[in-house]
Amino acid sequence: MLFALLLAACDSPKKKAATAKAAADAGVSHGTYESSIQNVREQLTKSPCDKELALKLGDYLNRAKDYAGADAWVSEYEKSCERWPRLLWVRQHACEQLENHACAAKTGGELIDARPSDSDYWWWRGQAEAKLGHFEKARSDYFQSMANKPTGFPAYRLAQFADEKLKRPCDGALLIQWWLEHGKRTNEDWVDSTRSKLWLEGACGQRSGKGKTSIAAPPNAPQVNVAVKVGKTPATLVLDERAGTTAVSVALAKKAGLEPAEDAAKVAVFAAGRIYEGPLVRVASFGVGSATATHLDVVVVDGLPEAVDGVVGLNALMQFQVKRTPKAFELSPLP
Fold it and tell me: What is the pTM of this model?
């Protein structure tokens, strides 16, 4: 009896691997990757929860264009082993190649939950949301990606639909502008022509920020407070250039008479150290010190830290030329 139990225990990983292999390989030829895939599977029979081996197998399956197999392998691994966010990269790529945009958006969200400060995860999800037709969600994800790290990836993708789908060409133009001023420019042909096209179509010179202001920001200060006016309602918000979308509390929204529509898109923002979600609402005038942002979409959120009425994020700041000095943020009109 003891021998039989030991034998069953030894066979268990092999049976699991065989089951996974049968599910993943059904009707699929892995071509030149077949021997590599088989070799890794054999190693996994001895160490079924080895993370590096699991990742290697997923990568081989994707390279072999067995995207359904790669997705199935991640599911099989997660049934028996501790979940590992890095392995979700395998599923993300597989879902994109399968054009399973709902899967790609869900997986992107899981990656964001695991590490919300990562810039790539936000534009990965934004790309999937855009393909699902969720353009407001995609835009906010692109804003957050840019806030985490200014790159051309979210700028290029927002520019593809900012005009026709969102009817917000200036959002596309301003995000490109923010990237050029605060990130590392690349020499791609689309940059200047796309920015100019969106800028002219949106008459962005009239719809970007007005006035100048200086916001005190002492070195090493834990937070930077700024006096704002949401419409005509005064409040004190935290300036956070690492928040993609400007956010206001439910209480401040009520005070300012902001009522999101019942069908308003619910978007996410990473602010004050955590992810918040809420409906969007548009503010015609949003005062930041003695400057004013116009036609600004803000997200109404619950659960902000006590005494915080909201956060001034990138989508407000990008309406201005922003210069950080050792003691202040200087906002002035775009050239």
Answer: 0.90
